[in-house]
Request: fold
Amino acid sequence: MAVSKTSTIVWGIEHLMKKGQDLPANIMRNLQIIQAIASAEKRLGKTNFYHSDIGQPLDHNLPIHKLIVQGSEFAVSVLKKSPELRGYTSPVGLLVLRESFADFYKKYWRFEIDPETLLISNGASEMWNAFVHSSLWPGDLVLTCDPHYNPFDVALAETGAGWLSIKTKSENGYHFTKTDFEKTLLRKPKKGSLKAVYINSPSNPTGVIYSKKEIDLFVDFALKNQLFIVMDSVYALYNYSNNPNLVDYLKSIPKTKLEKINDRLIFLDSMSKLAHNPGVRIGMGMIPNPKTRKQMFSDLSIRGNVQNHGQMKSAFVLDKIGRNPTLLNDQKLLYRKKMAIAYQIVKKNLMDKRIIPSSPPPEGSLYLTIKTGFDNFDFLIWSMTKYQGKNATSFVPLTVGKTSFRAVDADEGRRELRLCIGSDLKIIEAAIDSFVNQVIAYKKFISEAG
Ligand SMILES: Cc1ncc(COP(=O)(O)O)c(C=O)c1O
Reply:
């Protein structure tokens, strides 16, 4: 099917949203996608269907799962003994959890952070919302790379803010040059002003890990122009490259520069990927500037506190993994291995045979994002509803209608898709083999359909 020439909506003052139906949804939760995946799972049966859609670790029986269960039991025992934890607690987050985050950072990352600069949220997602709602105005723009984490569009659109994004390509491993950076700034719309930069590394969906030079371009520009610096570090553990993750970056820069960054920094982390526990919905923001932190705190105060059981459970897990670095190091190696297996299967069967374009392996995170050259929403619906193979694997198209991981180039986004490597090691090979068969069958189908 031909890919149409249409663009996605770049939210902002130039395109004020009609509230309601215009709200850009999180692609992974798109109803058509969810329904198609559910129908395929029903049609093929749970054991013949592999989930590579929503981005989350799906492994079973890793050592961390024992700690998560023990953490739940610990939290129940603490709640039984502490009636005050059955009531509202501080919107800032429990001190015990903020101290556990700081202690974990000291032990595992060897990076000192002050628990007083931390806020606890319902996942990193809520912290992003708190930043956008408390600190951006209609017309404000956030400089980032495309593809970017699409669910973060929602708060921007609600605010009348938007992205200014640097277009990157799969064939370059989604890296960018100084020229790409400078050319993007020339594209800034006349209305609205840049207020923040958003750096997500390792990235969702691309798996890119930016070099120190690339991060410096964002950071130096932000310092020069007095912008907020949002660093999204939720995939910090999953770095399979020699480039620094965002903690390594902050550790590597001179103290005077770090102080300047701290004045503008909103640093995001969460239990979702680090501790294999997205369901607990615990995130943290490190916001050293008291004024910015107070603004974000005011926004978070509407929901009272984050549930106390999840906070106590997370404090328990962080204490344990901080004391046992091997556990996380093994988790990282496992994901490196799964990524190598997944990439090799796609390379050997699709890229090397020129069935799809070639691109280098992802450098980190949980995603294999590839360019197929055809419309991947059509491909997904066909795979889930018509494909006749015995097994099938789900995935996420990067662009669906006006919603996209790409704010600048919907056509490019339609040609790309994202596979999550969260499945257990023992099924990842079967899942990617099945995906390869789907691509081959779909190419045959579209060529026969003319
Ligand atoms: C880049 C990125 N940032 C933030 C989040 C939000 O994570 P959570 O709200 O589960 O902490 C995700 C989740 O997938 C993500 O991929």
Summary: The chain has two domains: 27-63+327-449, 64-324. The chain has a mean pLDDT of 94.
